[in-house]
Amino acid sequence: MASLRCWSLCPKPRQVATESVHGAQLALQRLSRRCETCDVEAGTRCKCREEAVAQDGGKVAVVEVKGEERRSEPNSSFAHSVINMVGMLIGLGQLSTPYALENGGWASVFLLIGLGVMCAYTAHIIGRCLDEDSGSKTYQDIGEQAFGVKGRVIASTFIYLEIFLALVSYTISLSDNLPLVFAGVHLHLPWLHLSATQLLTIIAVLVALPSLWLRDLSSISFLSFAGIIMSLLIFGSVVCTAAFGGVNLGKHIPVLQLEKIPAVSGLYMFSYAGHIVFPNIYTAMKGPSSFTKVSVTSFAVVTALYVALAFVGASLFGPAVSSQITLSMPPHLVVSKVALWATVLTPVTKYALEFAPFAVQLQHHLPEGMGPRARMFVRGAVGSAALLVILALALSVPYFQYVLSLTGSLVSVAICVIFPCAFYLKIYWGRVPKSTVTLNVVLMVTGVVLAVVGTISSAKSLVQSIQRGHAA
User: Fold this and answer.
1) Residues ≥6 apart with Cβ < 8 Å to 78
2) How far apart are CA 82 and CA 92, in angstroms?
3) How far apart, in whole angstroms, are the C-alpha atoms of residue 275 and residue 424?
4) How far apart are CA 331 and CA 381, in angstroms?
5) Closest CA to 355 of 14, 30, 24
6) Cα separation of 141 and 253, whole Å?
7) At a CB cut-off of 8 Å and minimum separation 6, what does 276 contact?
8) What is the pTM of this model?
9) Which residues pair with 56 in a beta bridge?
């Protein structure tokens, strides 16, 4: 997850600032449509001068509004930008990399590395698209720059679909790990036919529910930093288990299981999802010309981390490795408890962040005469209803690996590979050499193939699991 950056253009409703953890993911659109209503969240302020505080690598950025345009001054150094991008990319996907490697075989690591290279390249061309039009600040802006309103609508649709499915995956992960965190706790309500796990999950989601009612959306930015810490704790806990946990490495990993590669590709791709935030990292840089170096460095670090985690986890537990590495770790170890708590707390930090873009879009469609309290009520009520739908879906379809793989194949491939290449070719058509056109076309075709076969495979496995669950 990247650090929070807020931009606002008083007269232009399409201006968006985005942050995502996948996670995942904060996408904050500008807080108002016109100068007269730029104080909607503040309640009483409306002076064409607004200060928004955002954490950026330990710095504080102040947004000042004077006249027509309001934008924070870029202040992210190369190091800060790399930290932001790496922290944003590492998230829920890391839990499944050992499972994916064990199922796909150790040779599938080349697929993991290859997807990392592809995504680093598409991050680079996103920067090129932003170079072309200084008015483009977000992923949706690039879509509109390339294909007009239709491009913006398609980009927004896929972004919101990814957010929704990611939240379902986070809630499933919460449900899977809670019983281990509260081992020995027995909950039973005679008038509710629910298991202890389901009751614990419902309680945890209800605890997170008030965050959706926060009046000032910028106040949730601290949750982004908390999510990064949780991800690093999980990775460190797995490494400590291998080094000091008394679990022997060296479990057999098959060379290649070709029939499982389609589903595995979806898991790998989800781990690299984060392109919707890259425009904001670019715009926040003091020297945006270094964005390509930031992308290459960040993806190199993240890919190395994923490869290490995948091999360590698969070698530790072999065929017994769970779809989430935390579920395989020895329960008696302190580091295992730390990893479990980090995994449980991560979704709690995600709900408000991920719902932010929905909340702001909703506000833009509310009557302008509606007061701040009424807006807060509508936003909180709609967000709460959506979260309860996600909770119900997660409890009904508790198959983490298949939902994650489906998300990666159905949505993340499009956002990370297909769309950036299509946007780039459309914007630069006639100005790039044939070799570049060929490269981008090949990547688009590869992305489409991965999306189709991965979606079919993961959807089929998900349906079969649901049918077996109902039969049981």
Assistant:
1) 285, 287, 290, 293, 294
2) 19
3) 14
4) 38
5) 24
6) 44
7) 18, 20, 25, 27, 138, 139, 159, 162, 415
8) 0.80
9) 59
pLDDT for 120-154, tens place per residue?
999 999 999 999 988 888 899 999 999 999 999 99
- pLDDT at residue 428 greater than cutoff 90: yes
CA distance 170 to 1: 15
Letter string b/e over residues 36-66, b meaning 16 or more CB atoms within 10 A of that residue's CB: eebbbbeeeebeeebebebbbbeeebebebe
E strand or H helix that includes residue 41: none
Looking at this protein, which amino acid is placed at residue 109? V
Phi, psi of 9 (to 5 degrees): -115, 115
Tell the residue number behind the tokens 């499933």, with chain if given.
Answer: 172
Q: Encoding tokens for residue 201?
A: 């999950």
The CA-atom distances, in angstroms, between 448 and each of 64, 123, 196, 429 are 43, 18, 41, 21
Bridge partner residues of 17 (DSSP): 28
Task: Return the closest-CA partner of residue 275 out of 455, 390, 419.
Answer: 419
The amino acid that residue 330 corresponds to is P
pLDDT tens-digit map of 354-404: 777 677 777 777 887 888 788 888 888 888 888 899 999 999 888 999 999
b/e code 364-382 from CB counts within 10 Å (16+ = b):
eeeeeeeeeeebbebbbee
Cis before 23? omega within 30? yes
Contact criterion met (CB below 8 Å) for 241 and 333: yes
Paired tokens of 362: 């909703």
Residue type, 29: Q
Contact 31, 151 (CB under 8 A): no
Site of tokens 């449980």: 344
The CA distance from 53 to 87, in Å, is 20
